[in-house]
Amino acid sequence: MATYQYTAVDRSGKSKKGTVEADSPKGARAKIKELGLIPSEIREGVLKNAAGTSGSASFSLSSLFEPRMSNANLCLITRQIATLVSASMPLEETLRAVAQQNENPKHAAIINSVREKVCEGLTLADSMRKF
């Protein structure tokens, strides 16, 4: 199980922060909802820094080796997603279709990774953030 930090809003509209343990972001979202809160942000991991206080990591070595795409390709893919979503196609199906139609296998892998994160419960923006 992983630890997830969250920011949520309670029924009275007050912002709450905390941590939950879950197997996936989707599971963390469900646990937060069980607490009667509406999650607005979920981040995996709580790390201790040199001073012993907790904080989330903003950089990892593995991010240096992850696939990236150019702004032009990102713009094209974003337009394709927008077109299909505006035609009332569900987001998960849209991402699957865009990945299948993409000729570049690295880009298709990135889109599939985004689709998996969306299926786990992350927002599209959070899923695309690292790319």
Question: What's a concise summary of this model?
Answer:
The protein has 131 residues and is α+β, with helices and mostly antiparallel strands.
End-to-end separation in angstroms reads 25 Å
Structural class: alpha+beta
User: If classified by CATH, what would the architecture of the largest domain be?
Assistant: Up-down Bundle
CATH H-level superfamily title of the largest domain: Type II secretion system (T2SS), domain F
CATH topology of the largest domain: Receptor-associated Protein
Which band does the percent of strand residues land in? 15-25%
Order of strands across the widest beta sheet? Answer: 2-1-3
Please tally the β strands and state the result.
5
Strand count, sense and closure of the main sheet? 3 strands, antiparallel
Helix content: 40-55%
What keywords describe this structure?
131 residues, Receptor-associated Protein, 2 domains
Question: Can you put this structure into words, describing what you see?
Answer:
The protein has 131 residues and is α+β, with helices and mostly antiparallel strands. The chain has two domains: 2-58; 64-128, Receptor-associated Protein, CATH 1.20.81. Helices cover 44% and strands 21% of the residues. It has helices at residues 25-34, 71-86, 91-101, 105-119, 124-128; strands at 2-9, 15-22, 38-44, 47-48, 54-55. It has a three-stranded antiparallel sheet. A two-stranded antiparallel ribbon has the order 4-5. It is elongated. The chain starts with a strand and ends with a helix. Residues 47-64 have low confidence and may be disordered.
